[in-house]
Amino acid sequence: MSDDETTPEEEPEQRPRGRLFGLLGLVAAVVALGVVLYVFVFSSSGSPTDVVDDYFQALKDGDVATARDLTCAAAADDLGAVDPDGGASADLQQVFGDITWKVTGETVTGDRAVVTVDMSGLGGDTTEGAPIDLIKEKGDWKVCGDATDPSPEVSAS
């Protein structure tokens, strides 16, 4: 055997190192994917506009639990006594079943936000530019006050 030839015993030393780097790269990619999924799936609720859309959809669908979850603590007390199985869901659907809305603006100032909404279907009236007040509680945006009232009051919590 000449000096230029490599023996089969020398090659395996390089492969484990390559496999190690490949494995470390795979682990890093999985961790990065996990972080991205956590941020998008488990992070706080979306924008104030998203919360208002979800809130009105919950009212329209008669989904008392979701409406309660999207309401600030001070106003959620009003929904706390509502039994979703006691006919409240049907009542919400009757009142809000025909509602349509379109978000026309959003203003965020710190932990408070105002989302402007044009809506119709509440007793035949059309409301343009209704401000919906939201506050941030524990990192999540919450509708605070009566979202069907054109000028809800935001309680300081």
TrEMBL record:
It holds the Pfam family DUF4878. InterPro entries: DUF4878, NTF2-like_dom_sf. Residues 43-144 form the DUF4878 domain. Keywords: Membrane, Transmembrane, Transmembrane helix. The chain crosses the membrane at residues 20-41. SUPFAM superfamilies: NTF2-like. The keyword Transmembrane helix applies. Gene3D superfamilies: 3.10.450.50. It comes from the Bacteria. This is DUF4878 domain-containing protein. It comes from Actinorhabdospora filicis.
